[in-house]
Amino acid sequence: MGLDWTLYDKIFENRVRLQIMSVLVANDDYDFNGLKDLLQVTDGNLASNLKSLEKEGYIEVFKSFVDRKPNTRYSKTAKGQKAFENHLLALENLIKQQYK
Amino acid sequence: MKQDDIIKEIGQIRSLMERSSKFLSISGLSGVLIGLYALVGAFAGYYTVYGFNSRFGYRDYYVTDSFVIYKLIAIAAAVLIVSLLTGWWMAHLKARNAGQSIWNAASKSLLFAVGVPLLTGGLLSIILVLRGDYGMVASSLLIFYGLALCAGSTFTFKEIRWLGIFEIVLGLMALCLPGYGLWFWTIGFGILHIVYGFIVHKRYE
Asked: Per the structure, how many domains does chain A have?
């Protein structure tokens, strides 16, 4: 069986994006500061990777105000969830391939 | 990509999914301590009702003597407060050692899931006391505490679900045997917490 590279997602080659997606798949939604604490990355790094995931249609952004401070929450889209699952499947196949 | 890299990456994904959705800073040892407080509280409660001088099974006082019930409530409240402080403080230490915050998305979800059944049970027991239905307080608190643990188990160690189920079973048994509430509390809040604390400590710490 040849490797099915169509499942592999270039977007998730970036570790931060893959990590963001893992958190959003496991939770209904998550806010910016929560993600920052969890991933231990800088604001700029996190923001730019969130932007590219949003552009791809993998995540949705909800902006609101809590105590007059801006609060930005992120959640996965159905498309993003599917892409994440496919990417994991691709990684799994990659491992199986190398065991042969 | 090398195979080791992929396996490491998948491991990171797993850990991130778990850390983001579960609050794992609850300390097993705090469970043991809380169980010990409950045992001390049970002795104090036993002494309040039965006294020291009476032979086993003979009461010096009855729960229906109104000041006895308030003494018992005071003991229970003191144990509850010290237990909450211990649990919070030790979780705080554990989280700090792991470089995490105790107040995050997972702990908020946990608090909400546990809070709803627990608050309901607390208010119910206050109503029962005010109405003079003392017999059902011990059992209903065990039942609601068990329900709260089951509800919260999605957001922390899965062992908590079993602790919750055992508390519910004890509560139902206590309902069948009115008058033995203190014994069921000793088992439920004392011994079960100690056993559970040791299990979590052994498995995760």
From this structure: 1
Alpha helix locations (H) across chain A?
15-26, 32-39, 43-55, 78-99
Q: In what order do the strands lie in the sheet with A59-66?
A: A30-31, A69-76, A59-66
Instruction: State the residue range of the domain holding A22.
Output: 10-99
Q: Does residue A2 form part of some domain?
A: no
Instruction: Indicate whether A61 belongs to any domain.
Output: yes
A6-54 residue pLDDT tens: 788 888 988 899 999 999 999 989 999 889 988 889 999 999 999 999 9
Q: What 8-state DSSP symbol labels residue A11?
A: G
ipTM of the complex: 0.79
CATH number of the domain encompassing residue A77: 1.10.10.10
Residue among B6, B17, B101 minimizing CB distance to A95: B6
Q: Taking CB atoms and an 8 Å cutoff, what residues of chain B touch A19? A: 12-13, 16
For residue A75, which phi and psi values (nearest 5 degrees)?
-145, 155
> Cα distance from A5 to chain B (closest Cα, Å)?
13
